[in-house]
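Structural prep section.
Before we set up the soaks we want a predicted structure of the protein with adenosine monophosphate in place, mainly to decide which crystallisation condition to try first. Input record follows.
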Amino acid sequence: MSFKDLKISKPILRAVAEAGYDNPTLVQEKTIPLVLYKKDVIVSAQTGTGKTAAFALPILQSLLDQQDAPKKGKTIKALIVSPTRELAIQIEDNFKTYSTYTNLRTTVVYGGTPIEPQKDVLKKGVDILIATPGRLLDLHKQDIINLDYVETLVLDEADLMLDMGFIDDVRKIERLCTKEKQILLFSATIPHKVEQLANSILNSPERVEVTQNSSTSKNVAQLLYYVPKKNKIELCLHLLRNTIKGNIIIFRRTKFGVDKLEKTLLKNNYKVDSIHGDKSQTGRQDALNRFKKGDVNILIATDVAARGIDINDLDAVVNFDLPNVPETYVHRIGRTARAGNTGMAFSFCSADEKEYIKNIQQLIQLQLDIVEEHPYPLDPKAKPIIHKSKKTGSKHRKGRKSEASKKKKKRWY
Ligand code: AMP
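Run finished without errors. Recording the tokens verbatim:
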């Protein structure tokens, strides 16, 4: 099937071709006709499947079809709500790319940055608004945003939106739009609370499910290391020296943990940057750009900061801390081995995280491959592995500690 078959017209087709898309992805094939048909839709698909274009293209197409709209006095006809700022920026980028050859106007608003410039753009009028919930409601309260003309409301990454506590905001936003609007709900997974939300605000929704990036992907080697909590940093350094190569994301649960690991890796001369919620918006964006451009090859992130961000060509994902929500494991792993490439996932499990592993394995219906041969085993009875093999042996032992550091009893981290 081609984009033309999906009733996408020339100006958009041209932009899509320039973006290098030859054919629609599966989620686009299934979703675009439903959106054009003005159906409410629940789409279960992860980042990387092409889900943004699955709603952006038909929205642009619908607006283009009614383009006797005046250039002046534009009203917001499509509203996309995103849980995180990075994702909102990324969605805006996509809309701008696809609408290059139209006169449809898009903008994005999110917190953590000055509100005045956002007000100026909004006052000039836009057709498509992408927003994070808090800033959207703030601007609405100040009468800068009018949602009376919204024809399509998109809730992107709905499960994350609810995890982040935006449920009341989302409901409020939904009520602020007209009753007749179309609602598209996108979510990587559909847990009960997303289902509940969908049942209460969507109108006889159609369902699209695309699960091609699940963690059970045969292309991802999923390795599990049982390790004492206090040795995780050492294990991480050991693996970075010997095993994990290429573009890597390391997930930690807390902002504090991200900062701590970043300092350690920097001191060990790794090219690393990080993203988490306490960093300024520009700081987060800079880190992301540096990683995407290849200035650094390691990105340390919390789940919330990294979620939904389109990062291609990942060679490895490291679960430095295991997620307590098993679905999060699926999101993390889904970032590697995209588009038929192979990838690696390394999970560190300390004694207090064993329960998480159980839940993850239950969810993905797969046993992770336990790596017993490493220098920091969790079980004290198990002998630490002294590498003798040609492959990893002497190289690892030399690299792990310098003579100088061996003398220092207390480590600096
Ligand atoms: P998304 O799932 O929306 O985050 O998209 C993941 C990546 O796929 C983005 O880099 C898109 O630019 C890209 N993409 C989306 N649709 C297509 C397509 N039909 N062909 C090739 N790449 C695509």
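Observations: The radius of gyration is 23 Å.
Flagged for discussion at group meeting.
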